[in-house]
Amino acid sequence: MPLPVKKATPSFEAAPMLMALIPALGLLIYAGWGAAPAPPKPKVAAALTGSQYEAIVAELAGKAHEAEKLYAEGKAAEAGALVQDGEKLATKVMSVPRPTLAATEAASDIDHLYGRMLAARHEYGWARLQFQKNLARWKYWKPPTEESARRIQQARDAIADCDKHIK
């Protein structure tokens, strides 16, 4: 004979815990709908005066010229150190709203040399990135000049060369 089954009766011992949980959940939901924290303020580089800017551009152009000379002489390590320093300077001079033609040319020279050095080490993807940066830099240069057209073509040729090795 089967045992009689008793219907379960709900236990009300959990009721006080549930009653305490409801306000806590409400508080968490309310806190979640609060205003998001303000985004961090962007770091603003110290403004360069005209003479400081021109001095940095001259230093960058000198490093680009010296690095090109050292690389042509087969001193890639020394040229690489100059290029690394030049990249920092190029970032600084190109961060202004309207960089000068001299600054753009010097930054372009450093980037192109760096791209050539990367391609020589068979790092074609990174080299292509440097050449693309130059292409974008000169593609939107206003007003277009013969020099900007020459540099655009130089970047396109270098990109095409990298693409041959990547594929």
Proportion of beta-strand residues = under 5%
**Poorly predicted runs of 5 or more residues:** none
Helicity level? over 70%
CATH architecture: Alpha Horseshoe
Describe this structure in words.
The chain has helices at residues 15-32, 50-72, 76-94, 101-120, 124-139, 146-166. By secondary structure, the chain is mainly alpha-helical. The protein has one domain (50-166): Serine Threonine Protein Phosphatase 5, Tetratricopeptide repeat (Alpha Horseshoe), CATH 1.25.40. Helix 2 (50-72) runs parallel beside helix 4 (101-120) and helix 5 (124-139) packs antiparallel against helix 6 (146-166). It is elongated.
Concise structural overview:
70% of the residues lie in helices and 0% in strands. The protein has six helices and no strands.
Furnish the topology, listing elements before pairings.
Blueprint (H helix, E strand, L loop, with lengths): L14 H18 L17 H23 L3 H19 L6 H20 L3 H16 L6 H21 L1
